[in-house]
């Protein structure tokens, strides 16, 4: 069970107290989930004393009340007629926030679009200091329980992949395998972290292929990228296989990608620059004459969001911290031929890393 | 097959020519899909002569090329090393747009966040007139082929619901039914238009319940809300049943919601105000003493997006137009007891409407 109280304490200490804020306003479903265990509220107002008021639409109110592990939920509405079970604050979202913060002096904000911030500043008639970066730093550093959920999410995804592979035979479609993956993930009480990618043959050259009615043929590359989200935390993993006997060209590409992945995984630990890890994979592919076909970043952070900080690419100056969970997923994509991507999810530790995804990496099915 | 050329002509005539624009910039995946048949590009630049340049990340380039039914795709990148199969424009997205529009005088924009518009104005050093509203009006009016795809999407969703109902027995979980729904939708070559909602018993009081490991018991309300997205176009439908013999209270709520739905469906036709249709359902529920538990709008437009204009709620002044496809979905939710929602999707016509969803509305399974 996630210790949401600890998450809240982190936010209060590292953001409210440190910066002398009266209130912190939190927007975006995943930021709100990090503090409360529910993504149903539209906004949180956290006071310097640690009181959490969640502002919720009437539509999401009952779900918020049942999911929230801390704080008080209020439905905001302009309607007069409401039910007996709703605690109401009269007004739109901005008016509701204004009522809670009152004359509070220094107010901070996390998340929210420019539109929202503009509206809010107008309503509150005060400047809002932005602490989104500081909040994301807290979210990056996963505690033991968060890691445990991400491991469970990985086990569910691996089971789904195994079941999908059981269905493999000539003529099976990408869509059938993707459908089975979704069935297993959702039946297990999880959600997909993203729509699974299943791509055969030359279709695997699309890094983000959408599953289609394309049928499997002997000799096809089979690329499958999938993840589960379990109790709010995501997993992410990609495997590529050949159905039948791999050709020399397929083997050469596969080995190059695997070598790039292994070399960059070896470098993952606290304090290393994200772009340096990207470049290790890039340089292996460069040696193989394949770097022009590695057309994306090496990886990304994973947590409540499937893509979150830190991002690992050729530009990223961020240093990895203990508790970061990141993917390492080099890929090579040849238009009209096919693509190979191999992806694992790793926990960053002091001096090393721990792999959270375990499915076999054999090229043959 | 959607006639994307016709969609483009509509945009050129009603927006570019009518307002004397040199170029129109189009953002957001569904707006881009409406013109090209692909949601892979990050932006489109449409010239007054009807040339369409799609700006795509390197990651999405191959998919864009294979999906786009018109226009030319260019990968924008700052990298020097690219593959032989990519047509490249050097620079970030804003620089790439600046290169295409050159000294073009009057430039319009559709979609895009405030952040994006601010950045773009800075880079282009010109004002951008916003035509998002005009573009959405074009998207609202579905042509025959768009309607045909939404009917096919509805047939796929209905088949998925039938298969899920086949699995119903005491002890089956919400997650198992949701998993089967996803399997059928995705295996058919479609995608879910949204994660299906399956809620038993008091859980059905959450309008947007997430499927859980809750087990079915005799006498439970069973609320299922699902949709498929087929070749880019969505369907949406909700059914509520009782497993076993319905109680008097369940029957009373069910009949009230059904009567509210039927009365508002009868009013759907060209020229009617959206809020007037909402109020018909509201007033039926008011007569039954249930209106305080109808905590959301009556419906919404459906098309490339699962939620799009027009919105049907107590505030909406919009008048329905021929070709609008809208949902009619009154609901009553009693916290701690359960909820009933019944939803169909309708095509707005002159003087009448046509229902696009056909699943039985019996209260008993």
CATH architecture verdict of the largest domain in chain A: Alpha-Beta Complex
CATH topology of the largest domain in chain A: Creatine Amidinohydrolase
Q: Count of DSSP helices of chain A?
A: 10
CATH-level-4 superfamily name of the largest domain in chain A: Creatinase/methionine aminopeptidase superfamily
Based on Cα principal axes, name the global outline of chain A: elongated
How many domains is the backbone of chain A divided into? 2
The topology string of helices and strands of chain A comes to HEHEEHEEHEHEHHHEEEEEEHHEEEEEEE
Oligomer: homodimer
Structural class of chain A: alpha+beta
Total strands of chain A: 20
Q: What is the topology, as strand order, of the major beta sheet of chain A? A: 5-4-3-2-1-6-7
Provide the helix percentage of chain A.
25-40%
Taking the alpha carbons of the first and last residues of chain A, their distance comes to 37 Å
**Biggest sheet overview of chain A:** 7 strands, mixed
Overall mean pLDDT of chain A stands at 97
Name the features.
homodimer, 365 residues, alpha+beta, Creatine Amidinohydrolase, Chain A, domain 1, Creatine Amidinohydrolase, 7-stranded mixed sheet, 3-stranded antiparallel sheet, 10 helices, Pept_M24 (chains A, B), Aminopeptidase P family protein (chains A, B), hydrolase (chains A, B)
